[in-house]
Design the sequence.
DNA sequence: AAGTGATTTAACCAGTTGGTTAACGCAAAG
DNA sequence: CTTTGCGTTAACCAACTGGTTAAATCACTT
């Protein structure tokens, strides 16, 4: 049985694909219409303009990109190490299912930094505070929280945004790079423990 | 005294700025002409087409982006740790002078992976081989060379491509982020020693 | 001064782009 | 059966885009 997909949703799906592949200025309304299997005028009927359509797609993708970790972070039964482990686990899984997401968000934000409004931002402060508390308590080694988080997030994201360059420089074929991505989770988690465990 | 700048060079400089700011599809030939202070027809007189002009700019920027480390890597007077230290030192300095370079290269390569031809690629193999040799000799700890290099390069590049997102999430103002970039070098070098020193 | 080749300009052009419009189809409501 | 309002379409449009052209200007040689 076929699930009915509304025209609106077909447009959003197509727009997502095209914007991620081509970026805002590279994307063409006609291309989105074709991919959605509809008339170009429908795009403007449902979403007034290219800008509006892009805003919606971007906000949706941004939500996906920002880790939803409030519940994990606030779970008192978990140590900081366990929390970070869970974060890396979930985040790397999500990225493997959306490998082009990071480049889409990062490159869009680079040309349009004010777009950040559409995102939930709170968890940054929480993590920093959490790290500082644990350092005070002496349960983890003393590190610079921002430098540490920059490295940690970079370790998750860079394999995806840097893939073409990295696999060219180190002459890694598709399968070899896939293997690296598979093993990345353990590697990052080992890094966390190695850096933080007293 | 004023140094004469050829029209050709003025165009290249302007094209570089515009392509880096806007990307290929976002860049406009008229904008490049305006920035170079010349007529649009001159662009086509000196460089046949937008594609040709972009290719030149990209190849030039790619050369800048790829670290030139042959001499350092092959200097037998330096230990691997010293070589990596020197690499990080030089590379982070270069990036601080060209903060938008990484995003330009990475996003272009993501949409156009075959452009890699224009780059010198050899140093990847050398570094991997070097790391494996040192592991054999027991002078550094046993690590997965590719995972290690992915982390190391990511540590250098991510602060630049991820800046807008990161500074928003952690609510870092310009000065705070600049400080982090300043301290990044030491942080990366400390990481290298911490991971590799037996 | 006239010729010559490279450089520069304004005007132009055809194709593309985001966006609009007016008519049409069609199901539900009256 | 007619009306009403949403969904859909083809045709259209003005602005913009990369690219061209023919004439003008400049620097230099003869």
Sequence:
């Amino acid at each position: 049985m076929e699930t009915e997909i509304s025209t609106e949703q077909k447009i959003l799906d197509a727009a997502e694909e095209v914007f991620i592949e081509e970026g805002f200025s590279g994307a063409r309304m006609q291309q989105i219409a074709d991919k959605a299997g509809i008339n170009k005028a429908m795009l403007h009927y449902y979403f007034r303009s290219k800008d509006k359509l892009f805003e919606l797609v971007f906000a949706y993708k941004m939500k996906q990109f920002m880790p939803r970790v409030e519940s994990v972070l606030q779970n008192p039964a978990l140590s900081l190490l366990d929390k970070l482990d869970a974060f890396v686990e979930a985040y790397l899984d999500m990225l493997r299912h959306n490998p082009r997401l990071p480049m889409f968000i990062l490159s869009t934000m680079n040309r349009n930094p004010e777009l950040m409004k559409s995102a939930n931002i709170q968890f940054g402060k929480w993590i920093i505070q959490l790290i500082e508390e644990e350092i005070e308590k002496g349960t983890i080694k003393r590190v610079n929280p921002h430098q540490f988080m920059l490295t940690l997030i970079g370790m998750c994201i860079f394999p995806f945004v840097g893939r073409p360059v990295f696999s060219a420089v180190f002459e890694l074929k598709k399968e070899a790079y896939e293997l690296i991505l598979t093993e990345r989770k353990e590697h990052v988690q080992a890094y966390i423990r190695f850096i933080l465990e007293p």
Observations:
- Chain A has two domains: 7-60, 66-196.
- Residues 110 and 148 of chain A are 22 Å apart (CA to CA).
- Chain A has a mean pLDDT of 94.
